[in-house]
Write a structure and sequence with these properties.
The chain is of the alpha/beta class. Helices cover 50% and strands 11% of the residues. The chain has helices at 13-17, 19-29, 44-51, 82-89, 119-126, 134-147, 164-179, 181-190, 207-217, 257-281, 287-291, 294-312, 319-330, 339-343, 346-363, 373-387, 397-404, 409-414, 422-425, 428-445, and strands at 4-9, 34-38, 56-61, 65-70, 73-77, 96-99, 154-157, 196-199, 225-227, 232-236, 252-254. A hairpin with a 3-residue loop joins strand 3 and strand 4 (65-70). The protein is globular, with a radius of gyration of 22 Å. It binds D-mannonic acid. Residues 160, 199-201, 269, 272, 341-342, 349 line the site of D-mannonic acid.
Length: 450
């Protein structure tokens, strides 16, 4: 009989295709690690999971296709179930709390520290027993453990940010400091927040996938997920005794996760965002479509090989090989990975994916002409969406829309301190390079939306 040893915040497609698949394997030998799924914003997924007793299909769509049933989830909490979720976090059997709430879910300022002006953080400081944010929830859960004399659980951040565990730790401690400095000290001394890398290409679930799963398995699954065959999960090797045997299911424990995180964020995610904005401006729909556009694919490959990799050297990783393997993954025709999905939340993603490389290139005098192309393409994409009154999925959507519609959208958007650090804001060469690139791209992209 499965019991609950992990609480997970954010049970979206990526969690269900990635972490839950590892845990599903773990549960074969050790039934203590069932997952309690907590959704903070909406009940849809939780209710669908509950209605299927936590079972759903994971479709592996690659050179070979296969379908497996995942049943790693034992409990389900959504908005309105706060008291039960709180009890669950204080259960001594719970040792790990994993999170996939996307970059914006951590309520961080551009410098990576907790944003005390964020409405959810203001709410949680005023109502610490009824939190709205992940940070508030971890603060409350850890406070309850301390009050009960229990060891802290281990929060494991599974979102695409550099030093994700350290950022989460610092945010939770800063939050706790405002409520109870003793609690903050206890968290700092006792709680471990390992850094991680998570990787597996996982498109959002759509009707097309539901149909494939229905036809191939005969199961009318409301919440199947799909991913490529490749999956990687690297966790910093600091887990305390009593943790599950993560290595037995292929999770890599490593002392230096950030070397891997930096390479993955800049090469894979940097190339993904580039393909997304340039590809959408050229009328492509999926990553595989964009990769079959010879000019686009060769631009992205050159940018990675000649501009991104040099900034990561020296590295213990064979970065060229990693990049080649990444491009091969992007060409997977079996997976329908919408460029529009990758284009979401650009204001949150671009700093880790491209701006860090640009900052380093400027500091060491390397060229940025290619690196600014995706930045220009993002701005043109925003202009196009704003003009067509089409959706912009981004926590800064209102500001981005207003600036994209202004008379000088490039200056206005580059002036956003939430995205572009002061040093780039004052960098005339960077600004000029973005403008030059936008004027070269403009005839191709924005005209269609006008
Ligand atoms: C993608 C990532 O949606 C996006 O922005 O770049 O989700 C990407 O597919 C994963 O990080 C791959 O591990």
């Amino acid at each position: 009989m499965t019991s609950t040893g992990i609480v997970h915040f954010g049970p979206g497609a990526f969690h269900r295709a990635h972490q839950a698949d590892y845990v599903n394997r773990l549960l074969r030998d050790d039934p203590r690690w069932g997952i309690a799924a907590v959704a903070l914003k909406s009940r849809g997924t939780i209710e669908a999971l509950n209605a299927q007793n936590g079972r759903y299909t994971l479709a592996i769509l690659d050179a070979e296709r296969s379908y497996r049933t995942i049943s790693a989830h034992s409990r389900f909490f959504g908005p309105g179930d706060g008291a039960a979720a709180r009890e669950q976090l204080a259960d001594p059997s719970v040792r790990i709390v994993t999170t996939t709430v996307t970059e914006k879910g951590y309520c961080l300022s551009p410098d990576g520290t907790l944003d005390f002006a964020h409405p959810d953080i203001l709410h949680d400081l005023a109502n610490p027993h009824h939190p709205a944010s992940l940070i508030g929830w971890l603060g409350l859960g850890l406070a309850d453990r301390r009050a009960k004399g229990l060891a802290p659980f281990v929060p494991i951040c599974c979102d695409n940010m550099l030093s994700n565990g350290t950022k989460l730790r610092d945010a939770v401690i800063a939050f706790a400091e405002r409520l109870d400095p003793e609690l903050a000290r206890w968290i700092g001394a006792e709680a471990l927040f390992p850094n991680t890398v998570v990787d597996s290409i996982t498109p959002a679930t759509d009707e097309r996938l539901r149909q494939i799963v229905r036809e191939e398995t005969g199961f009318d699954d409301a919440i199947p997920v799909s991913r490529e065959a490749y999956a990687q999960w690297v966790i910093e090797d600091v887990l305390p005794e009593g943790s599950p045997d993560l290595e037995s299911v292929g999770i890599v424990l490593s002392p230096n996760v950030d070397v891997w995180a930096r390479a993955k964020l800049r090469i894979l995610n940097g190339a993904h965002s580039t393909l997304a904005y340039l590809g959408l401006l050229s009328g492509h729909e999926t990553v595989a479509d964009a990769m079959s556009d010879a000019a686009l694919a060769s631009f992205v490959q050159r940018m990675v090989m000649d501009d991104i990799i040099p900034a990561l050297q020296p590295s213990p990783i064979d970065l060229k090989r990693y990049a080649e393997a990444t491009f091969a993954r992007f060409r997977n025709p079996a997976i329908h990975h919408q460029l529009s999905q990758i284009a979401w939340d650009g204001s949150q993603k671009l700093p880790y994916r491209l701006l860090d490389t640009i900052l380093e290139a400027r500091a060491s005098g390397r060229p940025i002409e290619r690196l600014v192309v995706p930045i220009a393409a993002w701005i043109l994409f925003l202009e196009r969406q704003a003009r067509a009154a089409a959706p912009i999925a981004d926590p800064l959507a209102d500001t981005l829309r207003a600036r994209a519609r202004s008379n000088d959208p490039i200056d206005q958007i580059l002036g956003l301190r939430e995205v572009f650090p002061e040093s780039l804001g004052r960098d005339a060469a960077f600004q000029k390079a973005v403008k030059d690139s936008a004027s070269q791209l403009r005839p191709r992209g924005v005209a269609e939306g006008r």
